[in-house]
Design goal:
With 160 residues, the protein is mainly alpha-helical. 66% of the residues lie in helices and 0% in strands. It is built from 8 helices and no strands. Helix 4 packs across helix 6, helix 6 packs across helix 7 and helix 6 packs across helix 8.
Length: 160
C-alpha cells in the first residue's frame, strides 16, 4: 500500500467517523451535548490540512472557536445551555462569545460540506473554484443551503 493510498484510506475512515458522529448528534434535537459536538468538530480539523495553505488561517480560526466551546463544556453540558447563558447575559452576538463561536463553527461545517460536495461532483473541479462555489453557498446538488458566514470567512482569508 502506498503512502497516498494509506492517506486516502485514513481520510475515508475519518469522513465515515464524522458522518456517523454527526448523525448520532443530530438525532438529539435541541439537547445536543456540548462535549459530543466538540468531539465531532475535532474530527473535521484534519481535513483543513489537506485543503492547502490557504486554509491554514481558517483551521486556526476553527480551532480557536472550538477551544472556546471545549472550555464551556465543563460548565454547560448542552449547547442550548451555552446559548441561553449568553442570551441572558446579552452576550450572544458579542465577538468571541461562545454562542457566536458556535454559530461560526456551524457555518464553517456547512462551508466544508459544500466544498467537499463540489470537489466530489467533478473529477476536474479545482480547489479554488470549489471554495468559491462553497462560499457562495452553491453545493453540488439541488437544495444546497447558503453559507453566508462561511463565505465571508473564505473571502477574507478565513477570519471569522
Amino acid at each position: 500500500m502506498t503512502a497516498g493510498t494509506m492517506q486516502q484510506s485514513a481520510s475515508n475512515s475519518s469522513l465515515h467517523q464524522l458522518a456517523t458522529q454527526m448523525r448520532n448528534t443530530s438525532k438529539k434535537g435541541p439537547n445536543i451535548a456540548t462535549r459530543e459536538f466538540v468531539e465531532c468538530c475535532d474530527t473535521i480539523l484534519p481535513f483543513f490540512d489537506h485543503l492547502g495553505p490557504v486554509f491554514h488561517v481558517a483551521r486556526g480560526e476553527f480551532q480557536q472557536k472550538l477551544d472556546s466551546l471545549k472550555t464551556q463544556s465543563l460548565q454547560k453540558p448542552l449547547l442550548v445551555d451555552i446559548v441561553e447563558a449568553d442570551r441572558r447575559a446579552n452576550q450572544a452576538t458579542v465577538k468571541n462569545s461562545a454562542t457566536r463561536n458556535l454559530h461560526r463553527l456551524s457555518a464553517a461545517i456547512l462551508f466544508v460540506k459544500l466544498l467537499f460536495e463540489r470537489l466530489l461532483s467533478s473529477a476536474h473541479a479545482a480547489a479554488a473554484e470549489a471554495a468559491a462555489a462553497a462560499a457562495a453557498g452553491k453545493g453540488a446538488g439541488p437544495g444546497a443551503a447558503a453559507a453566508p458566514a462561511a463565505g465571508a470567512a473564505a473571502s477574507n482569508g478565513g477570519a471569522a
